Amino acid sequence: MTIFLLGFITFLIAGITNAIPILSQKVFDEGILKGNINSIILFTAVLIIIYFSRGILNYISDFLLAKTSSKVIADIKTDMIHKTLNMPMSFFDSKSTAYILSRINEANSLSSIFTPTVFSFFSTSISMIGALIFIFSKSILIFIICILFMPLVYIISNSSLSVINKYSKEMFETNAKTNNKIHSTFEGIVTLKQLNQEKNVNKSISKEVFSLAEKTVYQSKTISKSSQLLNVTILIIQTLIIGTIAYLITQGRLQVGDYVSLTQYVGMVYAPITMFQGFKITIQPALAAMSRLNSLIGKTVPDNKGIKVNKIESISLENVSFKYETAHKEILKNVNLDLNTGEKLALIGSNGSGKTTIVKLLLGFYQTYLGNIFINGTELKKINIKDLRDRIGIIPQNIYLFEDTIANNIKIGNTMIKESEFRQKIDLLKTNGILTDLDLNKKIIENGKNLSKGQIQQIAFARAFMKEFDVLIFDEAISNMDQKARQAFKKILSKEFSNKICIFISHDNELSSFINKEFVLASNLNQEDKKEERSR
Prior knowledge:
Layout: H1 2-32, H2 37-85, H3 89-93, H4 97-105, H5 116-138, H6 140-158, H7 161-187, H8 189-194, H9 198-250, H10 256-297, E1 314-322, E2 332-340, E3 344-349, H11 355-362, E4 370-375, E5 378-379, H12 385-389, E6 392-395, H13 406-411, H14 419-432, H15 453-465, E7 471-475, H16 483-496, E8 501-505, E9 517-521, H17 527-535
Parallel strand pairs: 3-8, 3-9, 6-7, 7-8
Antiparallel strand pairs: 1-2, 1-4, 4-5
Helix pairs in contact: 1-2, 1-5, 1-10, 4-7, 5-6, 5-10, 6-9, 6-10, 7-9, 7-10, 9-10
């Protein structure tokens, strides 16, 4: 409906615009030459009404364009975020968070497609057709001259577009990388200050910023050069045509009043070509963004089909081998492991040996492994991944907290939990010594910046405690807790998780009394790949 209304307004504005030169000629012919004051007043009043009406129509069209632009960009961004969130982990392994965010924000550049310049281009194109018809009716010679110069004007307007498009793409990429570097700098601000490297890092970032600025200046220079060349060319052509009109008037082939209308119509002939350059220049960033965004939007998102899991009673890894896309060697090789309800497994191995990788495979983050992973006798690749993850709870080594209250950060472990059940579980945790020193209404800042590491681990444990999981994974789950919290953790573990499959990843033997099974992993990675594994 909005598109139809915009189309109707476009034709209406074009029709009104085409009437202006004729009415201007009427003021001259019927009013000035004949000395008719009433005609002057009448046609002047009509022109004022037309200008006022055109202004209102332009306002309505600008509003509709802004509304359409906001909706389209919001839809595209929503789709991109949805697809990005559902991408496999391999997608995130090779791209930083800041870089992905910058790529998503490139969707804002699509707003240039819905600017008034674009709308005006279509409006003036319709007016151009009306102008050419009028010129043809008055003088075939002037019509031919107008047509002959149009290819020259188009060639000049089109000459710099490939360069502008190239620089637009380069600017997007440079901007994404610069944002990534700035984001990484602030993430490591403590280490940066400790090493007194502010000056060196600032120098590096400044180099990226000035590189982007240079590309912007060069693009602006190219646009300006092309625009000025086009404007001068059109002014020369219009001057030649005006001279021809004046000559035809002296020869009696045109009336004096025709000069008023024809000079305006000649301007209408070249207006859309001039705007076409502006239109194409304006949408170059949008076209470049669309090309880059398509690399994200066009990616295939894994579906959520598969066999549903009611309860996980057994896990089996048979000759499982796995290599990260960015690694040189396999991190896991021919791993065989069996787990059943009630068993407590300790994964033992040095940093980079693949302990966390096994957990990620069990969660279905990667499905490019060799061998088989069976859940209740069914190959993991055939299982509904979202359903599988609903059955597995994890307290990760790298815990993420949202900028919300502590209570809401705990509830995210089970968004369907009733308030009464939530309070009951919180009371149980506090009775045993977990969360005793935390105000649940406290607002968390920047992933727990205002909390101790031990408090963050308690929140993560409480989050996992909110749901009835079949499998619980503890990745260095108590490494930062104080002695009181550790004792509370072990008490809850023995009471509440006795019938669960539990997997422990730890560098100490504090939880050895709960463990009835061990699996030792030997590292297959070189030093470079070990660093990469630790960073995942």
